[in-house]
Automatic annotation (TrEMBL), chains A, B:
Belongs to the class-V pyridoxal-phosphate-dependent aminotransferase family. NifS/IscS subfamily. Pfam families: Aminotran_5. It catalyses: (sulfur carrier)-H + L-cysteine = (sulfur carrier)-SH + L-alanine. Its cofactor is pyridoxal 5'-phosphate. It comes from the Bacteria. Residues 13-362 form the Aminotransferase class V domain. Keywords: Iron, Iron-sulfur, Metal-binding, Pyridoxal phosphate, Transferase. PANTHER family: CYSTEINE DESULFURASE, CYSTEINE DESULFURYLASE FAMILY MEMBER. This is Cysteine desulfurase family protein. The keyword Membrane does not apply.
Length: 382, 382
C-alpha cells in the first residue's frame, strides 16, 4: 500500500511487521465502538454493560479465529504486556514444579527478558534458517524443573515457522505448559491448535496498537501477579474501542487470508530471487516453512542504517534488524543466534495492499541503493 | 453530557471518573494522527520519523500543562502501567538507601500493590475527610530506609485534595523522591509543581484509554526494569494516535479549566446540599479542599449495587465504591480507611457537558430511588 505524503505521492511502505496501517474496517469499527463503548465495561449501569457487551463480542470473534472459547480470550494493554503477563503468571503457578523457563534463542527480547525475570532461562539454539532445534527443545522441556516452555509460531524478523506441534506434544506429556508467541503470524497463516497460552498482536494484523490478545486454555493454571480487584491480564482495564477494532480487523483479514497468502508468497519469492542476484548478499530465513509476507536479507560491506536511509530517500520504507531502531545500536539477537550476517540487514513485511508493481519498483531500486552505500563506505569496488 | 441510546434519549451519565467520553477535539486529533502517525515511531524511515514527530509534539503539549520539560514526559500503556513502572523503577534505583515505600492508605489499589511488590510498605492513615495525616506522612518519609513516597494529588473516589506540597518539602529535604498520582485531578484543577514523578490519566480528562502519562523530573534517578532495547516506560511502544489525542484533549480541557471549575463546583455543592436532606446519609469527602466535579455519599440501609441499578433504571449512570465493579465484591478500601460508611455508596463525577438541568433531575429522582431500595431490603420504615 502506498502511503502518500504531501510531495511524495509514490511512497511505498514495506515495513508492516508489528505495526501495519489500520484495516479500513478497523477504523469503522473503532468509530462505532467509540460511540457505543466509551464507558468502563466494569461498571453496572447501561453504558458500562453496553461496553462490556462490545468486549464480549470482540472476545468471541477473536476466539473463533484462534480456535479458543470466548472465556479463554483476554485483552491486554499490548503484545509486550501479553508476553510479560503470560510468562510471569504461568511460571508463578508452577513454582513448585520448577523455575526453568525453556525458550528458543530467537524469541522476542521482551519474552526473553520476562523469562529471565521469572526464573532460570534455558535457551535452545536455532539452525541457520532460524528454526529451533526441536530435539534439543523437546529434551529441555523434559528435564525436571521446567516450569514453562515458550516458542514463537513464526519469527517476525526472518519469517521462519517453528515446530510448535512437536514441542507441544512433548510439553503436554511432560505437564509443562507451552506459550506460543503468534504475534507475527496471526492474520497471515493458519493459527495452530498446539498451545496452552497464545499471544497475538493486533497491531501486526491491521488492528490498533495499544491493545493485545492473550488466549489461555481453561486447563492451564495461572497465578496472576497484579492486584486482586483488577483484571489479572489488564490491570486498569483496556480500551473497548481498541479491542473491538482489533477483533473486526482480525475477522476481516482472516476472511481473505488464503488468497493473500498465495499473492504475497509469490511477491516474496520474487523479492528473494531478485535480491539473491546482488553481490555479497545473504537471503535469510527458511525459503519454504515461512510467513507469506516477510523477506529478510543481509548485505556484506553495508551499514543497515545507511541502507534504510538510502532506500527511504528513494521512497521505500523498510525495516532493519541491525541498528534498526532509535533505542538500540545492538545487532539483532535473532540474526546472531542464526549465525548469519548481522549487519547490512533489510527486512520487508508486505502489507495486504502491497502491489506487484511496488515490489518490482523496489527490486529495481535496491541494487543501486546497495552500490551507493558501499561506495560511501569506500567498498564500491568489492 | 447526555449520551443518547436508541430508545433512551434522556440518559444522564454521571460516572465520568477515570473513563470520560472523548473530548470532540480528541476524536479529530485521533483521526489526523491515524492518517499521519500509524507507523512505529522508533523506525528510521519517513513514516517512522513522522510518527515520532507527532509523539514529540504530544510530549511537548503535555509538558506545558504539567509544568515539565518535553524530555521529562513519557507515554505509557495506561495509568495503571504508569503507577507500576514509577514505583518499581524509582524503588529499584534507591535500593541502597532503603526499601520502604511510604504511601497514604487511600492510594489506588494498583499503587498499593506495586508498593508491596517493590518493598516494605508504610501506610499512613487519613482522617474522616480522606485527607492524609501530613505530620505522620512527613515523619514516615524521614525514617531512614525510605526509598520512595507516594501521595495522590486528589482522591478520585471522594474528591479530597492531599497536602502534596508539605509532603514534598520534607521528601526533598530527606532525599526521598515523591510520586504524585494525579490521575483524578489533571484536567480538573491546577497541577502542583511539588513532585518528582507524576502520573496522569488521559481517560479521566476526556482523552483515550489505552495510553498513560508519566512525568519524571530529570534529577530523579530511576532503574528501568524492562528489556534494555525497549522504551523503559512503554515496552513495545505506545499507540501514536492515542498519545496525540490525549495531548490535544488535555490542551482543550486546560483551556477552559477555570470556568469549568466554577461551574461544576457549584453543581457539586448543589448535589451535596440536596443529598444531605435524605435521611441516614453520610456525604463523604472534604467539602472545601476537593476536586470540583466529584460528589460521593453513602446511605445507611442501602446496598450500593442495588442503588446503582435502581438509578440506572431511571436513566442515571453513577458509580459506587461498594461492590461497584464486576471484578470485586469488596468494599472500597478508601472508604474503609476514612472510617465512613462503606456500603450504600454512590459516586458522581460530572462531565464537562453535564448541565444544571441534569443535576436537578438527578437530585429529584435520588430520594425516591433510595426509598425504593430500602423498601426492597425491608427497611422502608427506617
Amino acid at each position: 500500500m502506498s502511503h502518500a505524503t504531501p510531495g511524495t505521492p509514490d511512497r511505498v511502505h514495506l515495513d508492516n511487521g508489528g505495526r501495519a496501517p489500520w484495516h479500513p474496517l478497523a477504523r469503522q469499527a473503532f468509530e462505532q465502538a467509540l460511540a457505543d463503548g466509551w464507558a468502563d465495561p466494569r461498571r453496572l449501569h447501561a453504558e458500562g454493560r453496553r461496553a462490556a457487551r462490545l468486549v464480549d463480542g470482540a472476545r468471541e470473534a477473536v476466539g473463533a479465529v484462534l480456535g479458543a472459547r470466548t472465556q479463554e480470550i483476554h485483552f491486554t494493554p499490548g503484545h509486550t504486556a501479553s508476553l510479560h503477563a503470560a510468562v510471569a503468571s504461568a511460571a508463578a503457578a508452577r513454582r513448585r514444579a520448577g523455575s526453568v523457563i525453556v525458550t528458543s534463542a530467537v524469541e522476542r527480547s521482551a519474552l526473553l527478558h520476562a523469562a529471565r525475570a521469572a526464573g532460570k532461562q534455558g535457551s535452545v539454539p536455532v539452525d541457520r534458517l532460524g528454526r529451533v532445534d526441536a530435539d534439543a527443545m523437546v529434551a529441555a522441556v523434559r528435564v525436571p524443573g521446567a516450569a514453562l516452555a515458550a516458542l514463537q509460531h513464526a519469527n517476525g524478523e526472518v519469517g521462519t515457522l517453528q515446530p510448535v506441534g512437536t514441542v507441544h506434544d512433548t510439553a503436554r506429556a511432560a505437564g509443562v505448559p507451552l506459550l506460543v508467541d503468534a504475534g507475527a503470524s496471526v492474520g497471515h497463516v493458519a493459527v495452530p491448535e498446539t498451545w496452552d497460552l497464545l499471544a497475538a498482536d493486533p497491531a501486526d494484523w491491521g488492528g490498533p496498537a495499544g491493545v493485545g490478545v492473550l488466549a489461555v486454555r481453561q486447563r492451564v493454571r495461572t497465578a496472576p501477579v497484579g492486584p486482586e480487584d483488577e483484571d489479572p491480564w489488564a490491570p486498569g482495564g483496556v480500551s473497548v474501542p481498541l479491542a473491538f477494532a482489533a477483533a473486526v480487523a482480525l475477522q476481516a483479514v482472516e476472511a481473505d487470508r488464503v488468497a493473500q497468502d498465495a499473492r504475497r508468497r509469490e511477491l516474496v519469492d520474487r523479492i528473494r530471487a531478485e535480491v539473491s542476484r546482488i553481490p555479497d548478499v545473504e537471503v535469510v530465513g527458511d525459503p519454504r516453512g515461512r510467513l507469506p509476507h516477510v523477506a529478510t536479507f543481509s548485505f556484506l560491506y553495508v551499514d543497515g542504517e545507511a541502507l534504510v536511509t538510502e532506500l527511504d530517500r528513494h521512497g521505500f520504507a523498510v525495516g532493519s534488524g541491525s541498528a534498526c531502531t532509535a533505542s538500540t545500536l545492538e545487532p539483532s539477537h535473532v540474526l546472531a543466534a542464526m549465525g548469519v550476517l548481522t549487519h547490512g540487514n533489510v527486512r520487508i513485511a508486505l502489507d495486504r495492499g502491497t502491489t506487484a508493481d511496488e515490489v518490482d519498483r523496489f527490486c529495481a531500486v535496491l541494487p543501486g541503493a546497495v552500490a551507493r552505500v558501499r561506495e560511501m563506505l569506500g567498498v564500491g569496488g568489492l
